[in-house]
Amino acid sequence: MPGGWVGSNRSAELPLNWSTEIRPAVLERDDYQCRWFTDGVRCTEPATDVDHVDDPHGHRPENLQSLCRWHHNRKSSAQGNAARRHWSTKRPSEPHPGLIG
Predict the structure, then answer these.
(1) DSSP label at 22?
(2) Is 3 part of a structural domain of the chain?
(3) For 38-50, what is each residue's pLDDT tens digit?
(4) I need a labelling partner for 47 at 20 to 30 A (CA). Which of 6, 22, 92, 96 fits?
(5) What is the pLDDT of residues 3-17, one digit of tens each?
(6) Where is this region: Disordered (predicted)?
(7) In terms of residue numbers, what domain contains 51?
(8) Tally of domains within the chain
(9) What is the pTM of this model?
(10) What number of other Cβ atoms are within 10 A of residue 71's Cβ?
């Protein structure tokens, strides 16, 4: 199954100045260091990606963090899996028409 931005429209939702102003400013603010913490220990890998902390449409600096590729992929995957679980339990499946009494 393909991952990443394949089939996604997320890049179209980013502000026009994302790659020229916002993204570089966040990476610089965070000293190009991943901000992921596990058990109080910060990741030591260099940051390559800028991630939305909460609101995926909020592009304010306080809603953005620098992450290494591995942690960004891990977080995005977990969010995608959670969304799929939410939608898969949203509505019960309908019985097969041939099995209706």
Answers:
(1) I
(2) no
(3) 999 999 999 999 9
(4) 6
(5) 555 566 777 889 999
(6) 72-101
(7) 13-83
(8) 1
(9) 0.72
(10) 22
